Fold:
Amino acid sequence: MRPTAWAVLALSTVVLVLAGCARATVLNRVFYQAVLDEQGAYERLYDEVLVDPATARVTRDLLGRLPVPEAQVTANLKNVLPPATLRTLVDEQIGHAVAYLRGQEPRLRLSVDLRPVLTNVGSFAEIYLGDLVASAQGRESPDFAAFTRELTAALDDISRGHRPDNLPELRLEPAAARQAAQWLMGAVPEDRRAGLRPQVEASLGSGDVASALAAVGPYALGDRVPGSVSDLSALTDDGRWNAVPDLKAAGVDLGAAEQARYFTRLALGWVQGIAGVLALGAGCVLAFTGSASWAVRVRRVGTALAASGALSAVVLAVARWQIGDLMMRPPSSWPPSVGRLLDDVQHGAADALLSVGLITSALPLAAGLALAGAPWAYQKVVARRGARLTGRRRSAVLGTAGGALVAVAMIGAVLVPLAAGKDARELCLGSESLCDRRYDQVAFLATHNAMSTTADRFIGPLQDPDIVAQLDAGARGLLIDTQTWETPEEVAERLREADFPPDMKEQITRLAERANPPRPGMWLCHAVCRAGAIPLVETLREIGTWLDEHPGELVTLIVQDAIDGERTREAFRRAGLERLLFTPDADPNHPWPTLGEMIDSGRRLVVFAEQADGPAPWYRNFYRYGMETPFSYTAPEQMNCVPHRGGTGKRLFLLNHFITDMGGSRLDAAVVNKRDFILDRARRCEKERGRPVNFVAVDFATIGDASGAVDRLNRERLNDSG
Structure:
């Protein structure tokens, strides 16, 4: 009987270890995202797979019938399929797969919602056309008739996806600007004209034909944008793509998923429960039967537990060795880059599963060794000192201790895998590894004048998507300007300090007065609220909602504050953000906490001011804690690393990385936002200033690959520390 109990205890513990390991890995959706992050899957998808010539047909089809050059398709993949959108799509499929393995869904369902991608196709047209016509104008046309003829020719070029050879340049009086704007508005749907007309009139009035054409250009494409969207929609079910039939048609064998489902349903069902009962029963048989001494009985239980832990480790090691036969092998028709990525992800998942299993196996092994050595320890420590217990008390004490160790080993076989596995709170900025890095050791993508967007119809915008969409696209630092709506007398004064072109300043004085009458309250504006404004409290509330929906993320606001600290504190209170606000240490030289510590505390919103310093303890002057580079560059080659506000030697480092030659420049952004350009400058500045760059602040963050550069900086720092 006792040999049988010994074997039952060992085998039951193995079953518990394997079942607990399955719960923490193949049945835990966060486990898969952690493996993808550890293998750099998302970065490799953009940097290796989607730029692989073998995948050109897929990327070409992604933009349907848009008249866009092939190079632009590759360069703007992140605009059409942003990393945040891709992560959401992948997580949705992981959820379906886990539900299938758990037996919660009867069939394997991989249904991808492509509607965000279809929406981004239209947004990409606007971005591309803005670049297409920017700075194309180069010669003056002295009369209005010639001006309109050349404007017609330029519009025809745009409708075919061609860059205009040149654009006419003519300063128009207000009446003529309205006439030209009316003519251009003919290409715009009626429901969009009212919001677009002020921007077009202001551009034409200042001679900036490029901006006017960039605004109406997407509508000049006629049915090309809707056509490209309908082409993609035709391949899906109204924007949703069921991938299972296509995977089977491509030769992918999904039989392994069916086999895994059979095992996992057993593991989660009655098998695990029976194994737990048998293990405890067998432990009791070994501990309380037979005429042997108490020391022998305790050693029996300990030996069985230790053997079960060792056997579990052996089983897992053998399974890892054999698991290669179960891995999916991509068909030969797939691009090599896809095959390499898939192979690395599968092996990474197998290694992670083995790691969790070994940690779990160590618990019964350690508990068994402790029990087996308990009689020896008792004889050496307790008995030698004369502290002998009576037989009954000794049996009670040892029985209680032994039972506790067995129970801990059995319960631990279920709970330890969950602790050893991946938890959603362990992902910081989408990466598990960054959780252990201090806030002042991490690089964040920051958007300069984040509120000044084309989405919110600012005149002279410096970003395209709105603030929430910027966060979705990877921005984790927002440089914003708080203002109150200026009186007519204040407009001229503020315009003198603004970085708008001179002609646009004149137009704003006249045109924006008519388009944007004064409004009370607190606003986010770029220099002049009449040139564009969004409400402060409502925008802060949207940021808070985004943080609630992304529990592993952290956001920093750097505020150019024309509103005093007391009113700013009231705005954050009204937005309901006090629960999220992080309070920096009063000593600027004190080391910052890690991202994991900040996220676990729930204090995931850091707010700095350029001028104020309080009164709220969380609202501190940035330049007490940080330093920056200059920001008035008029050409890429001027960008340097010399000290500016904040001096030197601070723990935080803001890299102002944008061109302000009479306003923001899309063409310059396409140069300075390139990954290698950012990396070269960041590394140079880090070497000169002796501190890692923390905030890379850019204009037009969706142009180029600033997000990829920031990701690369963080990976390099992790590798250096490792």
About this structure: The longest helix spans residues 336-382. The two ends are 52 Å apart (CA to CA).
